[in-house]
Amino acid sequence: MRFRFILLTCLLLPISAFGQSEVELGIKSSYAQRIPLNVAPFAAVDGTRPDQALSLESLVTADLEFSGLFDLKRKRVPLAANGDKEGLVEVRGALIKYKGETHFEGRVIDVSTKQQIGGKRYRLKEDQTRQIAHHFADEIVRMLTGENGIAGTQILYRRKTPDQWEIIMSDYDGHNPRVLLRQSVPLIYPRWLDQDRALVYSSFRYGKPDLFIRNLSEPASKRLSSYDGLNYSVDWSETRRELAATLSKDGNAEIYIMNTDGKVKRRLTHNRAIDCSPSWAPSGREILFTSDRPGSPQLYIMESDGSNVRRLTFQGSYNASPAWSPKGDLIAFASRIDGFFQLCTIRPDGTDLRVLTTEASNHEDPRWAPNGRHIVYGEERGGESAITIIDIGTGGRRILAGGDSADWSVR
After folding, report:
1. Residue 336 in contact with residue 346, Cβ under 8 Å?
2. Would you say 298 and 313 are in contact if contact means Cβ atoms under 8 Å apart?
3. Mean pLDDT of 154-162
4. pTM of the model as a whole
5. Most C-beta atoms within 10 A of its C-beta, which of 69, 183, 199, 331?
6. Spelled out in words, what is the top-level CATH class assigned to the domain 35-145?
């Protein structure tokens, strides 16, 4: 977040950098009571490897625990007579041999009725254990809640080494990190776009922040925007297939709408203050942004054509880095409280302000998971920056890696 305002030279107070058939269970809200769920020991039969079965079991269980949706137990529960153990659901898994190859069969069972709620079969290859476990965990979430899981999603973030800047992509749990970009000049705020087929970021490759786009199917990036001044701080709308970007090409930092070819379609803000950090509403009808119009940074909302600008935050003297929930019901942002930046959420109508973190350290640049329940953000830990995930339903957290400026894929 420091870049987001320090690069804009007139801002007053910079902040720290780190930068089959399915059973309807009626659980549709991420904040409903947890679903009782038992994970039975996964079996290895037909000469398959017990260590692989245990690895799959552990990975699936970890994904289900992290979802925050289940009250988990791990044991074998005998099938009951009809009516017994009503409501108990069990996950079962087994490695089997099929046509000479190892396969994994995962099933979800209603213990009281002895009926299978759903199941999946996968051909198991050595290097696909994690991928299969994540996919099956997401299938369990879908079977039991009707919502998509997040175990198969990806995290994008920036990392500073002693002499280079990197953009990293990893699994949602921090495993399998891959370096997508490495430069000797600063890289700023990588963001997913186009259903996670590409990313957009700013780079100082040519002495000032220009926007670049990198398609994951291509070996190199292309310069997207190199207008005079600043080209940075973007957000992609899947609904409108447009970028909202911060540009200072007309002398002041303003919000613009751009195509993925870098062409500016329209300017949205016209104000002497600094307007930056746009975030689209899921509908594509509104845009959040940060502005110091009242003298210090606060959050504002406007229509996608720049009309009907209204102030969202009134509590706190410094509110920035807004991110609109993919469900449209909440907005996450960073607010300075007692000298440190804390994560907060608020509803789009300005009600129900909640503070999510309270430690005496900075928590910055929140971005939502596609389930609208988890947030990835950067925080200071022992003088270093770390990528952390918080479950806003339970408050549980997980540190993923060193780095900052994270973004969460939509699938």
Report:
1. no
2. yes
3. 96
4. 0.89
5. 69
6. alpha beta
